[in-house]
Amino acid sequence: MLTAESSTARETAHALLTDAVRAEASDLHLLAGHAPRLRVHGELAAYGDPVDGAALEAMLRAVCPAASVEMIDRSVHEAARRMGDELVHDLDFSYQLDIDGMLHRFRFNVFYAHGSLGACIRMIPAQVPSVQWSGLPEHIVDRCVGFHNGLMLVTGVAGSGKSTTLAIILERMVRMYGCRVITVEEPIEYVHVFGDNALITQREVGVDVPSFAAGLKYGLRQDPDVILVGEIRDQETAQMALTAAETGHLVLSTLHTRDAKGAVSRFTDLFPSDRTDEICAQLALNLRAVFSQHLLPSATPGEKRILAIEVMFNNLPVASAIRSNNLVAMGDAILTGKSDGMITLDESLASHVQTGRITLTSALECANNPTRLNAMLGQQSTNGKRR
């Protein structure tokens, strides 16, 4: 059992983070009274000795920004609860640490569960990965780098690599063209470098700016060419993103949806129903592309997960479907849009199965249309059931 007296709190925290990086984990989970859990290539596994509550609190206090340290103080938290004060139940912050001569960043979420302290820590690679490492199609990235205005969205569940995709595209834009970039993130993940022909300002929600919407609003006054918004999660941010796209800026952001066409319905759902036609008309004009991402277990145990992707570009059939808010027509436009660079999720999955990167079982569990996927692979499912 790791206790507050085991060693200095900062050294213990650094040792856990170092071990997680060396294990190629994507996340480190800490919960008082339990052994740490590492998520490696999508799988959770216990690691090391249990950590008691006092040791966990000391570790988190040692790495937490001074301005937020009271959130981790159990006595302050309990006193506020007893007095009926409004509590900040979760705390997000970033941290960086030199490991093996390379600077690594970490995104912390600190929380209470049944009165016990816990933390989920996302590992952020020291450098923006290459296109080849990510599995993104090279020609798709090149096309997106050529966008100079409008709105581009990357969708998927949490942990599907959305931020990494945006970072890869943004880095290539800066390297190829040079531009003025503003990012609004919660917290800042990848730290971007730039040369003499570019300028990047990275702002953190809760530290440098109060909200995504405020970061967008004031960012428009800072001469941006490109604005990256960590996530569109409310009406105000969605409206500011559309406004920025309409006024000649390129806006990159993320949403939580399962497929590309779902990004349109999710976006419009952020607004009152009487504005749906208006928002659809604006999206039809300003949306440039939607990526929908899934990370699937590799067919080779122990290897990193494989990216399956659906890509929708805004051509005439897609724009017409968006304007009429017709999701079925949108899906059909993706199916028939291969000549315009579009990729269906099932096509991506079929390619990975054929090359042996993922198993048929994983592909069928993720597919939009398992029957169509089986047809692509020249196989039949038994009684229409997934295998």
CATH topology of the largest domain: Rossmann fold
Mean pLDDT, all residues? 89
CATH class of the largest domain: Alpha Beta
Radius of gyration: 22 Å
CATH structural architecture of the largest domain: 3-Layer(aba) Sandwich
CATH level 4 superfamily of the largest domain: P-loop containing nucleotide triphosphate hydrolases
The structural class is alpha/beta
Strand order of the largest sheet: 9-8-10-11-7-12-13
The tally of helices reads 15
Q: pLDDT under 50 segments (min length 5)? A: 79-85, 380-387
Beta-strand percent range: 15-25%
Shape: globular
| Estimated helix fraction | 25-40%
Largest sheet: 7 strands, mixed
Written as H for each helix and E for each strand, in order along the chain, the element string is HEEEHHEEEHHEHEEHEHEHHEEHHHHH
* Total individual domains: 2
N/C terminus separation? 43 Å
Q: Please count the beta strands (DSSP E, at least 2 residues each).
A: 13
Walk me through the structure.
The chain is an alpha/beta fold. The protein folds into two domains: 9-124, 2-Layer Sandwich (Beta-Lactamase), CATH 3.30.450; 131-343, Rossmann fold (3-Layer(aba) Sandwich), CATH 3.40.50.300. The chain contains 15 helices and 13 strands. The protein has helices spanning 9-22, 53-63, 74-83, 131-134, 138-145, 162-177, 212-219, 235-246, 260-269, 276-286, 316-323, 327-335, 345-354, 360-366, 370-377; strands at 25-31, 37-40, 43-46, 90-99, 102-113, 116-124, 150-155, 180-185, 199-204, 226-229, 250-255, 287-296, 306-313. It has a seven-stranded mixed β-sheet with strand order 9-8-10-11-7-12-13, sandwiched between helices. Strand 1 and strand 2 form a beta hairpin. Helix 7 (212-219) runs parallel beside helix 8 and helix 13 (345-354) packs antiparallel against helix 14. The protein is globular. The two termini are 43 Å apart. Residues 79-85 and 380-387 have low confidence and may be disordered.
